[in-house]
Design brief:
Elements (H helix, E strand, L loop, with lengths): L3 H11 L4 H10 L6 H17 L6 H14 L2 H20 L14 H14 L14
Length: 135
Amino acid sequence: MITKEQVMPFFLNACPSFAPDWEKYRASNPDEGLLYIDMSELAHHMVDLIKSKQTSEFPAVFDVIERLHIEGDDYVKEAATIGILESLQNVASNNGVDPEAFVPWLGIESRRWWRQLNDFWQAKIPYVGATINDG
């Protein structure tokens, strides 16, 4: 079972180009951060990468996201959806990037949760996960 302490090291291993941004972020936030905020920092980096068409690390990053959805404890699973997927959608939208540009890299489980986020924001479901087990 993947715990919150393991998450950011997994991402840093999958996305070495994030290390300089991560180090700057950690230097300005020396206390242990909240995983959701930490993941938001990664989302900003990912949006910068897609804008510059540097997606070579995406398969490894999205493999980590998929693993978090499948192997994470409850906190990690929720953070994989709200912390990274929702952050990707929001940061992309706020930076002129179509969030759907990330979909090709999503794994099966991550794609299910991505659709839940879309359905929630389109007011099709009352909360994220409402219909995750339907059909």
